[in-house]
Design a protein that fits this description.
Largest sheet: 7 strands, mixed
Helix content: 25-40%
Distance between the termini: 36 Å
CATH superfamily of the largest domain: Ribonuclease Z/Hydroxyacylglutathione hydrolase-like
Number of domains: 2
Radius of gyration: 24 Å
CATH class of the largest domain: Alpha Beta
Number of strands: 23
Number of helices: 12
CATH topology of the largest domain: Metallo-beta-lactamase, Chain A
Shape: elongated
Bound molecules: MU-OXO-diiron
Structural class: alpha/beta
């Protein structure tokens, strides 16, 4: 995408990656993504906020050429992950006078990743400022969004926040600004679930830290910019602070149909009692959608057959993911079937130490479920309904 000026002397110079379908060889990108970089011209100095993915440096460099940039004073590195820092060596090769501005932790990481010389860096303290002449950059430490070294950059005079990953969304679009709030809400929630949710406590601290600032624009490094910053700040508050909703998430696998019958029965029993249920067949799942559902889940029920005494391997994967993502669910249970012996429940419970959940007694049947098993599932549904009521979980908004 060609450079675009969206405020006097401030340009979007990054890359839209329309075709990328996987991030970290793990995270599905159904709508592609972007690596946003921003150029700020001050009366005395020029700064580049973040760079782009290491696979696409030439688009950024071409944009700097297009704008006639002959001298670059600073490369602000808010976050060291290579989708934003990967083009730093290319930028420094073109503009050898430029200094990389970052936190001390980021300096260590960037040195390890790109073997940059120490004299290429200027580290900054929390809340330190840097003058560009008539413009001032303020650096706000914001650790663990989602690496330890992260910071945000605030352009004081223009009231623009450049938060890199924080508030981002994986969307490839020609729109500079959010135009379709519903679409961006979903993409930003997916992004939060996959990337930020494990660090919810730190995200909370960072939201508190930026409370006193006035924003006219939030310009993240993935997805469109927020011309109405309250939209995304309020969404983050909902995801981070609010209690879970009256939602049950059921990742499951069924090999010969027994576990599926149990899942279907439980889903129906919960639904008729007003619980929203999201079920995910782990053999075909979009893990991003499952992660998004986990943001709201009050209860997680894992459905698995027994394979070689333990849970199905794809269910072990689901449990591993849920444990890593640390959703705020308060309850969990396990349902499923086995042929001649099982330790699936113990194995699954052992896989989720990070989940601060009360385990509701599992329902495990031998072979195809019988009446007694359906009765146990009915009881499980009643227990979940009651626990959600007692915990005060709110209804999911339509
Ligand atoms: Fe978009 Fe953590 O990199």
């Amino acid at each position: 995408m060609k450079a675009r000026e969206f405020a006097p002397g401030i340009f979007s110079v990054g890359v839209v990656d329309w075709d990328r379908r996987l991030f970290d060889s793990l995270i599905p990108l159904p709508d592609g993504t972007s690596y946003n970089a921003y150029l700020i011209k001050g009366s005395e100095k020029t700064a580049l906020i973040d760079t782009v993915d290491h696979k696409m440096p030439e688009i950024l460099l071409d944009n700097l050429d297009l704008l006639g940039i002959k001298r670059l004073d600073y490369v602000i590195s808010n976050h060291s992950e290579p989708d934003h820092s990967g083009a730093i060596p290319h930028v420094l090769a073109k503009y050898p006078e430029a200094l990389v501005i970052c936190t001390p932790k980021a300096k260590d990481l960037l040195t390890d990743l790109f073997h940059l010389a120490p004299e290429k860096f200027k580290t900054v303290n929390d809340l330190e400022t840097l003058s560009l002449g008539d413009r001032t950059l303020e650096f706000i430490y914001a650790p663990w969004v989602h690496w330890p070294e992260t910071m945000l950059t605030y352009l004081r005079e223009d009231k623009i926040l450049f938060p890199c990953d924080f508030f981002g969304s994986h969307i490839a679009t020609t729109d500079l600004y959010v135009t379709d709030e519903g679409r961006v809400y979903e993409a930003a929630k997916r992004y939060y679930a996959e990337i930020m949710m494990p660090f919810r406590a730190q995200i909370k601290n960072n939201l508190e830290k930026i409370k006193g600032y006035e924003f006219e624009l939030i310009a993240p490094s993935h997805g469109p910019m927020y011309g109405e910053p309250d939209f995304i700040i309020n969404a983050y508050h909902e995801w981070v602070y609010d209690e879970p909703k009256n939602v049950v998430v059921i990742p499951y696998i069924s090999m010969h149909g027994s576990t599926k019958k149990m899942v279907d029965y439980l889903v129906s029993s919960l639904a008729v009692n007003g619980v929203t249920v999201e079920q995910f067949d782990m053999s075909v799942v979009d893990t991003g959608k499952m992660a998004m559902a986990l943001v709201d889940a009050g209860t997680i029920v894992i459905g698995t057959p027994t394979v070689m005494i333990g849970p199905h391997p794809l269910i072990a994967y689901a449990a591993f993911l849920a444990n890593a993502l640390k959703p705020k669910a308060k309850f969990a249970s396990i349902i499923g079937s086995y042929g001649w012996g099982t330790k699936a429940v113990d194995t699954i419970v052992g896989l989720v130490p990070n989940l601060k959940v009360e385990i509701i007694p599992p329902v495990i049947c031998k072979g195809q479920p019988r009446d007694i098993d359906y009765q146990a599932l009915e009881k499980l549904a009643e227990t979940i309904v009651q626990k959600h009521k007692d915990a005060g979980f709110v209804e999911k908004a339509e």
